[in-house]
Amino acid sequence: MERHILVVLPHPDDEAFGISGTLAGHIRQGTPVTYACLTLGEMGRNMGNPLAANRVTLPEIRKAELEESCRSIGIQDLRMLGFHDKTIEFEDRELLVGKIRGLIDELNPSLVITFYPGYSVHPDHDATGAAVIDTVQRIPVEERPVVHCIAFSKGCEDVLGKADVVNDVRPYLGQKLGSILAHSSQFQLNGQLGGKSANDKEVQERFGYERLWTYRFQ
């Protein structure tokens, strides 16, 4: 059981596929989880299908979806940090580090979860992960939390090796599917499921395991 988990990701929905089941499991064990989401994903391409949003209304819609996702997972401490979507790589690094260090100092987490810089496809993902790593690197070794990273770029296992942590989240598929379905402006999962539930074998094979890499500081 972790003391406290801090999740730092850039967009609403970043939590859904990769770690929602993992977080639900930790919460079930009694571990407090804080989710710091840097942006509202206001530059996202998807506006719903059928169309349900525009560039003006999308931020509030995605905020509501993120809150619903957190309710499904069981996260009670959601922090929205107010950065702008698709600009994290251009933000002042010291500002990002200061925000993240402030959360670490406040919460004293034993585990931080973020994206693996360089292996997470989107520039915001990589920049967020890099800022988290930079922050933790500055903390004295004996005081550092462990950092687990999401990685999914093509061929990442060829470089990083197999995931260090593989969580069986099948007991929490209800929460995970609820998290994914909450982001309805971005994902149309209902049609893909074809009425199948979390108890269906195909659903369990597709969504039942989550993989994370432990960042090894030099």
List its salient traits.
218 residues, alpha/beta, Rossmann fold, seven-stranded mixed β-sheet, 9 helices, 40% helix, globular
What does this structure look like?
- The protein has 218 residues and is of the alpha/beta class.
- It has a single domain (5-214), classed as 3-Layer(aba) Sandwich (Rossmann fold).
- Helix content is 40%, strand content 16%.
- The chain contains nine helices and seven strands.
- It has helices at residues 14-18, 20-28, 58-73, 93-107, 123-137, 156-160, 173-182, 189-193, 201-207; strands at residues 5-9, 33-37, 77-80, 111-115, 146-150, 165-168, 209-214.
- Strands 3-2-1-4-5-7-6 form a seven-stranded mixed beta sheet, sandwiched between helices.
- The longest helix has 16 residues, at 58-73.
- Pfam families: PIG-L.
- This is Bacillithiol biosynthesis deacetylase BshB2.
- GO terms for molecular function: hydrolase activity, acting on carbon-nitrogen (but not peptide) bonds, in linear amides.
